[in-house]
């Protein structure tokens, strides 16, 4: 990407819900896409985001199927990571977000679910990428969903008490 960079460009680093997955696992909450060796499923929703200049669009969410009896744990644990998406934006019926078919994510891989699981949805860092795609600038350099910037900051740095 260096050959495309110019001094008038800006860069944004956006938090990712992957940051709270290890704490979920440590608490015994399964993260099914990790167990299956897949990327998390991500969906465009019907929830409009606040426009910023030429950028506008709908919220993109990631989804993890959580056993019903562990949903409260997932909410409690993820809410301690507010700078990397925090608590879920929706729990339960995907139609409430305008998602017609969980088996057909817009990004990532199809979900892995088990009987008794509840779909739990978090705001996703693909949201700004989808807005950039919709605004069609002449040039944008971005990540591939699920392939994030890696730093030496441990996940715990993003956790609040």
TrEMBL record:
Keyword set, alphabetical order: Lyase
Keyword Lyase: yes
Transmembrane segments: none
One Pfam family in the UniProt entry: D-Glu_cyclase
Protein origin, superkingdom: Bacteria
Record GO terms (molecular function): lyase activity
Family (UniProt): Belongs to the D-glutamate cyclase family.
Protein name: DUF1445 domain-containing protein
UniProt lineage: Bacteria, Bacillati, Actinomycetota, Actinomycetes, Mycobacteriales
């Amino acid at each position: 990407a260096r050959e495309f960079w110019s001094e008038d460009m800006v860069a944004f680093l956006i938090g990712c819900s992957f940051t709270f997955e290890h704490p979920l696992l440590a608490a015994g909450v399964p993260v099914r896409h990790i167990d299956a060796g897949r990327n998390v499923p991500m969906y465009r929703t019907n929830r409009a985001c606040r426009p910023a200049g030429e950028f506008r669009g709908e919220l993109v969410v990631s989804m993890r199927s959580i056993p019903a009896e562990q949903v409260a744990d997932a909410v409690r644990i993820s809410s301690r990571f507010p700078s990397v998406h925090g608590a879920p934006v929706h729990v339960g019926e995907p139609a409430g977000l305008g998602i017609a078919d969980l088996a057909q994510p817009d990004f990532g891989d199809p979900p892995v679910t088990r009987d008794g699981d509840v779909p739990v949805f978090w705001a996703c860092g693909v949201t700004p990428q989808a807005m950039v795609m919709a605004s069609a600038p002449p040039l944008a350099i971005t990540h591939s969903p699920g392939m994030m910037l890696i730093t030496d900051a441990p996940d715990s740095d993003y956790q609040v008490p």
